[in-house]
Amino acid sequence: MSISRRDFLKGALAGGTLLATGAPAEARENKTMPDEAVGLLYDSTLCIGCKACVSACKEANNMPPEFSREDKLWDTPLDISGKTLNVIKVYKNGTCENKDAEKDGFAFMKVSCLHCVDPSCVSACPVSAMTKDPVTGIVGYNKDICIGCRYCVAACPFGVPRFQYDTPVPQISKCQLCRHRMGEGKYAACAEVCPTGATLYGKVKDLHAEAQRRVALKPGADAVFPRGNINTHDQSSHTAKAAKYLPKIYGEKEIGGTQMMKLAAVPFDKLGMPTLPDQSFASRSETMQHTIYGGMLAPLAFLGVLTYVAKRNVKNDDDADDEKK
Amino acid sequence: MDENSFENDESMVTLEKRLGISRRNFMQMCAAMAATMGLPNDAAAAIAKAVATKKRPSVIWLHFQECTGCTESLLRAEHPTLEKLILDIISLDYHETLFAAAGHQAEAARRAAMKANKGKYILVVEGAIPTKDNGIYCKIGGQTAIEMLKECAADAAAVVAIGSCASWGGMPSTPPNPTGAKSAGEVLGKVIPNIPGCPPNPYNFLSTVVHFLTFGKLPDVDAIGRPKFAYSRLIHENCERRAHFDAGRFALEFGDDGHKKGYCLYKLGCKGPETYGNCPAVLFGDVGNASWPVGTGHPCIGCTEKGIAFTKPIHALADLKTMRPPVSFPNIVEQQGVGATIGATVLAAAVAGLAAGAGAKMAKNLGKGVKLDESEPAKKNEERNPS
C-alpha cells in the first residue's frame, strides 16, 4: 500500500477524534434479579446420589438415553450433552469412606444450567434465540430462531449450553427449568422427584433465605429440610442431621448471581464449580461492544478512514483513458 | 451320596414315621434350607442325612426381656409344618412358651438337660438382659437373667441369639433404657452368632441350626455375628420396589397415588438402603408374593440394625450404604472421547497436503493473472465503447 505519511496521519487523526467522542468506557452494572424469579437450591450434603433427578429430567424433557458403556443397558451420561440436561457427578478422594469429606471422602454435585441473573449466553446470542424471562428469570431457548452459531456454547462460563452434533437438524440443549410444565401447574421435575430435598424448587429469594439458614446450622444438630417446592409445601419436610456446611452459597454473587444456588461441605472448586468474579461477563463484554459500536460512530469513522485510504490507492483506468482521449 | 442307598436307608424310613411327613416333602425342606444358606446342591443330601441319622441336639431356649414374637414367628414357618419338624429335629428341653411343665419342675428339667448334654447343647437366647441394679428387673425361678444366661452359656456348645433384643438390645434398650437392657453378646462379653429381626425370619434361624447339625459348626458370620447367608445384602439391593427408586418414583404419603401404585417408600422413611437382611428374598409367613413389610406398603424400619430400629424416627430418611464407595457416577472432570487415531491423522495430513499444494498452485496463477490483466484493458474498452 502506498500512502504518504501525511495522508496516514490525517486519517488516523480523524478516526481517533471520532472514537474519542464515543461513550465513556465504564462498565454497565450487572443486571438485577426479577422479583418473582424462580430457581433451584442444590444441597450437596443432602444428595444421596440416587439419580432420580437425572431420570425424571429425561422423562420430562423427552430426551433419549445416553450410553457410555459397552453394554448400552442403562442411561449413563458422563456429562451434560445434547441428550442430557442434568447429571449427578461425584468427587472422590482416597478411600471414599466419608460422605462430604474432602479427604478420604466423596461428595455429589449436580451439573445443569444455573440460570444466571445476567447470562452470558443471552448476551452472546446474535438472534435472541436465548432469552431471559422478565418475570421468572428462566433462561430459555427457542430452536426456531437459533441459527446454530454456538456463541452461547462458547460464552457460558459453566459450559452449560450443548450442541447436538450428532443430528442433521441440531438444537442447543440446556435446562429451561421445566418451563414447559409450568402451564400444567408443575415445576422442575428434578426437584419434584428429589427424595431428600437436595434439589429444592421455589422463588429465589426464599431459596436464598433457606440457604442462609442451612449455612448457619450447627453441624450435627437435627434440622428440618423441606422437599419439593419451598413455596407451596407440596411435599412433607424431613428431619436430618445438619452437615458441616462451607460458609458459602455458590451462585449468590458469582458473575452477578445465579438463580440456581448450591451448598456443599467440600470446596466448590473441587466439585467442578469455577471460581468467578462478581461482575458478570455480559456486563463487561456488552460495555466493550456498546462503546465501540455506540451510535455506530466508531465503525463509521473506521469505514471513513478505510475508504479514504482505499480511494487514495485506486488508480482509475477510465480517467487515464479519458486523459489520453 | 448315592440316592438309591438313601431311598432304602433305614433311618429315612424311621424319620418318615417320626416326623409324619413323606420323604419327598422332607427332601424338599432340606433343599429349601440348603438354598436359603446358599449351599450347593449336594448339601441338601448332607442335611437330610444329618437330620435323619444324628442324635437330635438338645436345645435350651431362654426368654428374657421380649415379646415372644421370635417364637411366634418360628411357629409359623410352613415348609414343612415347622412346629412339628423343629421340635423333632431338635430336642427342645427348655422353652418357657412351649413346654408343658411349670415352676420348679421346669427348672429341674433345664438343669437335667444341661447336665446330660454338657458341652453339647445349643443355647438359644430370646430377649434382652436387664443389667441395671444387678439385673433385678427380670427374674426367672428366683434367678436374675444375667445369672441364668451365664450359667446356661458356660457349658453350651454354641450360643445363638434370636431376635433383635438378644442380638443388639432391641426395643428394651431404646433410650432412656430404664432397665439397662443389653444384648446377650454384651452380657457374655463376646460376639455370638445372632439372628436379628423383629421378628427374625424363622428360616434364617432354622437354617443356622441345621447348618450346625450338618457340619458341626455355625455358618460364616459377619463382624457382628450375623450369618452371612442372610445378612450380607442390603434390603434395598433385592427390594421389589427398587426400580421405582432408580426411576425417581416415590410414594409421598400413605394412601397417595404413588403409594397405591407401589412406588418406592424411601421418602416415607424406608430404612432398606441402610439395613442388612434377606427379607425381600425369603419373605414372611409363606403366603407368597409381597408378604413382607415393604411389600405390604410400609417402609422398612431397619429392625435388624442397631441404632436404626426403635432409635431413628420412622419418617427419617435412610443413609444410603449402597453408595460407599460411590460407583457408577461420572467424575467431576470426565475425560471424553479418544485421541486421534492413525487413520484420522493420515486423513488430516492428506487434506493439509492438498490444501498446501492447491495454495501454492493458486499463488503461481495469481502472478499469471496480473499479466493477463495488463493485456486486457484494450479489449475491455472496445467492449464498452463499441463505437
| Overall mean confidence score, pLDDT of chain B | 83
Assign a percent range to the helix content of chain B.
Answer: 40-55%
Helix/strand/pairing category of chain A:
alpha+beta
**Pair with the most extensive interface?**
A-B, 41 and 32 residues
| Domain tally of chain A | 2
How is the largest sheet of chain A built, in terms of strand order? 9-1-12
First-residue to last-residue Cα separation of chain A:
29 Å
Sheet with the most strands: spatial strand order of chain B: 2-1-3-7-9
CATH architecture name of the largest domain in chain B: 3-Layer(aba) Sandwich
- CATH fold-level assignment of the largest domain in chain A: Alpha-Beta Plaits
CATH architecture of the largest domain in chain A: 2-Layer Sandwich
The gist of it:
The complex is a heterodimer of chains A (325) and B (387). Chain A is an alpha+beta fold.
Helices, strands, pairings?
The complex is a heterodimer of chains A (325) and B (387).
Chain A (H helix, E strand, L loop, with lengths): L4 H16 L17 E6 L8 H10 L25 E6 L5 E2 L5 E7 L8 H5 L5 E3 L6 E3 L9 H5 L6 E2 L8 E2 L15 H5 L5 E5 H12 L6 E4 L12 E4 L18 E4 L17 H12 L4 H17 L3 H8 L1
Parallel strand pairs in A: 1-12, 3-4
Antiparallel strand pairs in A: 1-9, 2-4, 5-6, 7-8, 10-11
Helix pairs in contact in A: 1-8
Chain B lengths: L2 H5 L2 H10 L3 H14 L5 H12 L4 E6 L5 H7 L6 H8 L1 E5 L7 H14 L5 E5 L2 E2 L8 E2 L2 E2 H10 L3 E5 H6 L12 E2 L1 H5 L5 E2 L6 H14 L12 H4 L3 H4 L3 H6 L9 H4 L18 H4 L10 H4 L45 H34 L1 H8 L3
Parallel strand pairs in B: 1-2, 1-3, 3-7, 7-9
Antiparallel strand pairs in B: 4-8, 5-6
